[in-house]
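pasting input
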Amino acid sequence: MPSLIKSRWLKPLVFLACLVPLALLVERGLHNGLGANPIERITHATGDWTMRFLLITLSVTPLRRILRQPDLIRFRRMLGLFAFFYGFLHLMTWLWLDKFFDPHEMWADLVKRRFITAGMTGFALMLPLAVTSTRGWIRRMGGRNWQRLHRLIYFSAAAGVVHYYWLVKSDIRLPVLYGAILAVLLLLRWANRRPVYNR
Amino acid sequence: MLVRIAPHIRSSEITPKRIYLNRRRFLASAAAGLWLARTPAHAEKLANLAKSPFSTSEKITPIEAATQYNNFYEFGTGKEDPARNATKFRTHPWKVKVEGHCNNPKTYDLDGLMKLAPIEERIYRHRCVEAWSMVVPWIGFSLAAVLKAADPTAKAKYVAFESFYDPSQMPQGRWAGIPFPYVEGLRMDEAMHPLALLCFGMYGETLPNQNGAPVRLVLPWKYGFKSIKSIVKIRFVEKEPPTTWNLANAHEYGFYSNVNPQVDHPRWSQASERRLGEFFKRKTLMYNGYGEQVASLYNGMDLRKYY
C-alpha cells in the first residue's frame, strides 16, 4: 500500500477522478440529460461536489493517522483545490445563469438571503487558501503561519453546511449528514490535539 | 362540395417544437434511457374536451418536463422522485368524501365525481413557490360544480381539502419533513371562483400518478403547493383550516399564497421565475397573470400580511 500511495501514477489518476463529476455534467448537458431544469441541476451538482471535496480534504489528516499512511499528504493540496474549483463553478452558475451578472440583483440577494451570505462566506474563506496553496507561499509565510491560515477551511466547510441547511425547504437529511461528517472530522482533530505545555 | 371538418387534435399529440427540432437528439436520449419518454402505463385518453376561454395561448411545456419534474413529497423530495416512486400508486378504486357544513354531503367514486360537469381542457400557467413555472393543458371542470352540488350552508366560510396518505405506498413520505396527510384550504369565494379547477387529467390523458392522480386541484393564481394532489376529502368549515406548508413553516408559507412578485419568499426573490425549457428568467406576474379574474377577491387586503 505505501508503494501504491507513493506511486507517481496515482496522482494524475486521482486528478482525473476528481474531474469525473464535471465530465458527467458536461456529457449529460450535451445530451439533454440534465432533466427539466438543467440550471438547477448544475447548481446543485456543483454545490454538492464543493461540499464533498471539502470533507474529503478534511479527512486526509485523520486518515493519515488512522491508516498509518503519512504519504496521503501528497493529495491534500490537490483535493482542496478541487473543492475550490467546484465552489468556483457553483458560484459562477449562480452569478451567470441565475443572476446574469446583474450587480444590483446579486447585491440584493447577498444581503437579504442569509443562505447566500453563508455560501459566499464559505467561498470567500477558500480564496486565500487557494492563493497561498503553493510551495512559495508556504516558504514565504513560514509553516506555522501558513498552517494557522489554512485552518480557515474548518470555517469554510461549516459555512457550506449552514448554507445548505438554510437552503432546503424541509428535507434536511443531506445537510445534516454533511454536518455530522464535518463534526466527526473536527472531533478527531480535537481528540488528537497536541498537548499544551506550560511555557 | 366536400367540406371536411378539421380533426380535433389533442395537445398531447402535438409534439412540442423544441422536441421536434431536436428529434434526433430526442431519439438518441430516449434510446439511452435518459429522462425523456416514458408515458405512464395506465394513462387513459380523455376525449371530447371542450375548450376554455381561460386558456392561455403560450407555448405548452413539454410533457416530459411536466411529468418528470414534480413536487409530491409523499413520494420523495427530489424533483424526479415522484415519477420514479409513484408508479405502483393504487388510484382505483377511489373515493372522495364531500362533508361538513352542507345540506347534501356525499361520498363519490371517481366516475360519479367526473360526471358532475362536462370536462374541458384549460391551458394554465403554473408557478411554483420555488420560482420555476410551466404551461400545462389541464383537464377538468370548475371546482364550484362539486361545491354547489353539496349545497353548503351559511356556516361554510372555508373549504378544507385533504390528500390521500398511506405510508405503505408512500414510504418516502416519512423523510419529507412536513406532516401528512397533506391538507390545504381556500376561502369560500376563492373555491367558488370559476378559475379554480378540479382536475382529472393533463395533456389529453388522465393524470399520471406523480402529478396527483386521480383528482387534484389547480389554482393558477396561487403558488403550486396550494393545488393539492390526490384528493380524498373536501370539507366545508367555518374557520380558516390548517394548511400543510403553513404548519411546517408559517413564516414562509401563508394561507393565501397568491403569486406575488412584490412579496419575496424570506429566502429567495419571487420577482422572476424560470419557465421550464427556457434559458433566461422571466418576470413573474401579479396573481400569475390572472389578476383580471381574481384581484377583486382580495380588495382591501394587505397582501404583505396575508401572503
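fyi The two ends of chain B are 60 Å apart (CA to CA).
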